[in-house]
Amino acid sequence: MTRYVLRRAGQGLFVLWAAFTVAFFVLYLLPSDPAALVASGGGEVSQVDPAQLAALRAEYGLDRPILVQYGDALLGVLTGDFGDSYVSGAPATTLVAQALPETLKLTGAALAVAVAGGTAVAVASVFPRARFLRQALAVLPPLGVALPTFFVGLVLLQWFSFRVPVFPAIGNEGAISLVLPTITLAVPAGAQLAQVLSRSLRGTLGEPYVETAWAKGASRTRVHLAHALRNAAIPAFTVLGVMVGGLLGGAVVTETVFSRVGLGRLTVQSVNQQDAPVVLAIVAFSALVFVVVTLVVDLVYPLLDPRIELRTPRGASRRAAPQRATAVNA
Amino acid sequence: MTGTPVTDAQATDSPAPEAPVLEISGLEVAYRAADGSTRPAVRGVDLRVGAGEVVALVGESGSGKSTTAHAALHLLPRGGTVTAGRLRLDGRDLSDLTAKEWQAVRGRHVGLVPQDPTVSLNPVVRVGDQVAEVLVIHGLARRADARVRAVELLRQAGVDDPAGRARQYPHQLSGGLRQRVLIAIAIAARPRLVVADEPTSALDVTVQRRILDHLDSLVRETGTAVLLITHDLGVAADRADRILVLQDGVIVEEGAATRVLADPQHPYTRRLIAAAPSLASSRLVIGDDRGPTTDVERPEAPSAAEGTASPVLALDRVRKEFALPRGAERRTLVAVDDVSLAVGRGRTYALVGESGSGKSTTARLALRLEHPTAGRVVFRGQDITAARGRELRALRRGFQVVYQSPYASLDPRFTVEQIVAEPLRAYGVGDRAERADRARALIEDVALPADVLRRGPRELSGGQRQRVAIARALALQPDLVVLDEPVSALDVSVQAQILELLVRLQAEHGLAYLFISHDLAVVRQVADQVGVMSRGRLVESGAAEQILLDPQEDYTRELVAAIPGRRAVQRLETA
């Protein structure tokens, strides 16, 4: 177990490094001059004094060779320093840390709504005795997946802020401002979960052990929830891991539509202004979230399914019967 | 949970003999197909099972036996509906119960032992809790108390160390143990009737025997009625008081087990008895479906030295080890340990053993699909142990294989002609027209109509598919065919036809067979030599009659004794 976690942590570090490196060089290749950005303070690039530009380049170390800059940036990252924003001059990590709580609130709420709603819709699409009801409910998940986030957001705004002003259209004021963005963000995620879960439920309901449960005299509810759902949840759980990452991406659109302060807005801003240090900090943070979430998902798996064992694969163990057979064949 | 006329007193005391526990009359079940049409599966079945009585419902797949059994629990698969008939349990009419009322009957008054123990337990729940669940559902015990009683039930079902096993998950138990858990579930609430749907077909014969013995004694002690569903007349004859033979949803014969077996009235019953490998007692001979063992008519039957003079295939002290994952108790698993055997031209060597005995690995070694850790593989006098690449590929023309499942071993996207001609294409034999001719001849050789050539395997029955697989194996005119459980996935009457075909082809083409099987009853019909494998070792080998009639090793004796139908045959002979 400890071995497993250590190995996975090592792999995670590699993923972080790779994400940072790719992002770094992609940003470097962009045809823009960071010094000009700094000089203009993020606004329109106006005429700047060449001497001033050179001074700025020297100050930010932009006049050095790319590999030296990269090495320097990497060392900085190891100490938690992503450099200062070209635009505001504040440390990139501070900007991310300031934006983070609002986004965490939003994505956390959306995750909860998506899991609860997705599970409810999935169960509802297999549970009713009436065939037409099951079929009608089974249409919902693909529909939810197909709706673009911005569209859902705009429709919600139109109805519940403008026509019937129940919820505020923009801003971060209080829990009530979270309602519409949360729904907007939760719809596609929940639909995706419902789609996988309902398909998986339909599969498990045909399994012989479900018939055993019926033969015990179990009620419809018990058969569906205690037997089928527990087994069907295993593949759906994988989706959950991917979903958390997807929510961060969705936050970009949602926060823009609802003009909310948060990581999504910061991302849009800093990409638009080519504010490399901030973008790099956000990329590294997203990668970290992905790494941690996948690890947590994998660690929780054995709790859901006793057949799964956490094991460090080794060359020797990989050479079990079937693999060996193909090797000889080929 | 409303209105339960069967009380506990009735459940334990035997009722008046004239009131059967289960009475089905005029049962008709139909399945609705996707296009809206209905297909009758059961057409007017009447049956009665008395207290303490075992009644077997025998038939082939599609005969409606499973449908009848499931109708008794009101658990028909999707699309199935009871269109007519009454169902009584201890005199109480259950025909018009609501879904909710059925919940109170299932598990409480009728228990089910399902078909395949490997997939019939919930994989994420401890087995003890799965047994306890029955008691909790029917309000017979609170959760904690139910756990304690579950352990006792597991012990009754013959599970060793029941307290320890109760805390394990299904995947940690063998198939036999899982079936015992399912039996514990079925008997937990002391039901009046147990429906056992092919309860042991998925298990090894010796395990099958122990489990059926155990089920027998359990139900006889408690006076439970048993409806046993089986395709194997041998099992039915061994276990049942009465046998009902079902064909196309109609009961064609019914009577005391010994009577049905000794004096079958209906031609279909006779056909089933003739086909049941467990009831046949001798080797198949060409030109005759089943007669007394006489080797005189067998072509080129060499004398006692057969197979050793110039065997087609010889395994010389082969050994195969597989590396085990780190953390296992041992570094390697010895799958095959010091096995030697020889298969002569035109002869059949049968390798018998239970799952995990190493017989399939031995077959893969013979086919050079595995490389032996030690020992030699000799084919037509040539040592092919080290052969590889181009040389091995050329050698492969000489030995072909037929697998167990004709459903999985044929490419569903190929036509039959493409399947049969594929080996020819692979070895560049002939041109397109010649290959088509050869495919036609091969299909004719395995007694299939020529029009199957254009069809896909999906349109064929299991038996027809296996014939196609055999035709493919013969395409390159091999000397040796390895038959890996070639009839285990087929119905008994189809099994008999395939075995006859194999025997005929062997005589016509002088083929050597390495026949892998767990079923001694099948082996008895085709083998010249038999080797018995257990835990990777060849524990006994020799001429087939000698092994089957006079086994020397305890393990072989146990295998022979476990062949279903033997008890019934002996009962008939002594009567």
3D architecture notes:
Chain A: It is found in: Cell membrane. Chain A: The chain crosses the membrane at residues 12-30, 106-127, 139-162, 174-194, 232-258, 278-304. Chain A: Residues 100-301 form the ABC transmembrane type-1 domain. Chain A: Belongs to the binding-protein-dependent transport system permease family. Chain A is mainly alpha-helical and 330 residues long. Chain A has a domain at 92-272: MetI-like (MetI-like fold, Orthogonal Bundle). Chain A contains 15 helices and no strands. Chain A has helices spanning 2-29, 34-40, 50-60, 66-78, 92-124, 131-138, 140-146, 149-163, 179-205, 208-215, 220-257, 263-272, 276-304, 315-318, 321-329. In chain A, helix 5 packs across helix 9 (179-205), helix 5 (92-124) packs antiparallel against helix 11 and helix 10 (208-215) packs across helix 11 (220-257). The longest helix of chain A has 38 residues, at 220-257. Chain B has three domains: 1-109 and 192-276, Rossmann fold, CATH 3.40.50; 118-188, no CATH class; 313-565, 3-Layer(aba) Sandwich (Rossmann fold), CATH 3.40.50. Helix content of chain B is 35%, strand content 23%. In chain B, the strands form four sheets. Chain B has a six-stranded mixed beta sheet, with helices on both faces. In chain B, strands 16-17-18-13-19-20 form a six-stranded mixed beta sheet, sandwiched between helices. Chain B has a four-stranded antiparallel beta sheet with strand order 2-1-4-5, covered by helices on one side. The interface between A and B is large, with 35 and 44 residues.
